[in-house]
Amino acid sequence: MFQEYIPLIRHSNYKIGGPARYFYAGKNIEGIEKAVVKARQWKLPLFILGGGTNLLISDEGFDGLVLKPEILGINYQASSIKSGEALLKVGAGESVSQFLNFLVSHGLSGFEWAGGLPGTVGGAVRGNAGAFGGETKDLVSEVTSLDISGRTPKLIKRNNKQCRFGYRNSIFKHTNTNEIILEVVFKLKKGDRQAIKNAIKDKIQYRQERQPLDYPNIGSIFKNVSTQKYQNINLSKFKQVIKNDPFPVIPTAYLISEAGLKGVAFGGAMVSPKHPNFIVNALGAKASDVKNLISLVKSEVYGKFKINLEEEIVYL
Question: CA gyration radius for the chain?
Fold first, then answer.
């Protein structure tokens, strides 16, 4: 049932991380429930792994069970030609790229902003992923999760409001490892297939041109900075760079660049000169190298701007 001593580097976009004492890939709800029960019986620490795209895994690995939900499937739950909308039930283990391919082939619009976004659907919901002014929460109708906090796992269904979405946040982040996202119902609009395909292609191209995708990375390390949190500082000096994401923010990449940190390296990790909110694995980096760079960036940006950067990534 469980695999032992699995190198988590295989499951990390960063290509960083030690072994998992136990590892289990759950293909269905029943299998995931059984794995959770077994982990509780053995008193194992539990970590829920998504696509490994915003996760920094420690060099020591994880002395417990890493559970990777791999529930797949994209199905119409209901559709209405008259209203021009469709409801899709999507397995949390589906990759965002596969989901986008489905949307293009069926002429469904609303998720174009996610073109080139790595990771899984479940991960996008958990972190309320967003880009180009769009957010996952705008499309979520319902989320089914497995509450594993008690002796017996139980299913929970939440509507959009009950998911308590925030900026790169949701209730599922607050419950930490006590809930596993299983399925998501999205509400999409009917649209022109070619226009949808072109919009997604544009976003992919944008990322390729501006992000260091030629190095192992886990996306943006820090959240952009909400201007609402820093009314006490002189925001006029950021006037030219403030953007909507989807509310006014100061791009963290700008702050890191202005702090003179482009290209700064520690061990095998480097602040990307191409996009300084990315710390890339340039040369066999260890998790400790990345952590040291994160600390340095936070310290330097605070020293220059009196702004505290907040990580967007998850630590294991």
Answer: 20
Whether residues 195 and 102 share a domain: the answer is yes
- Is residue 25 domain-shared with residue 145, that is, in the same domain? no
271 contacts: CB under 8 Å, gap ≥ 6: 256, 261, 262, 263, 264, 265, 278, 279, 293, 297
Q: Calculate ∠ Cα 208-267-298, nearest 5°.
A: 70
* Residue found by looking up tokens 């982040």 in the block: 173
Q: What average pLDDT does this structure show over 75-86?
A: 73
**CATH number of the domain where residue 110 is located:** 3.30.465.10
Structural domain total, the chain: 3
* Confidence check: pLDDT of 91 > 90: yes
- Do 226 and 290 belong to one domain? yes
What pTM value is reported for the model? 0.90
On the 0-12 / 13-18 / 19+ scale of CB atoms within 10 A, 183 is buried
Same domain, 199 and 288: no
Render pLDDT for 179-232 as a digit per residue (tens, 0 to 9): 999 999 999 999 999 999 999 999 999 999 999 999 999 999 999 998 888 766
Catalytic residues: 168, 220, 312
Amino acid letter, 102: F
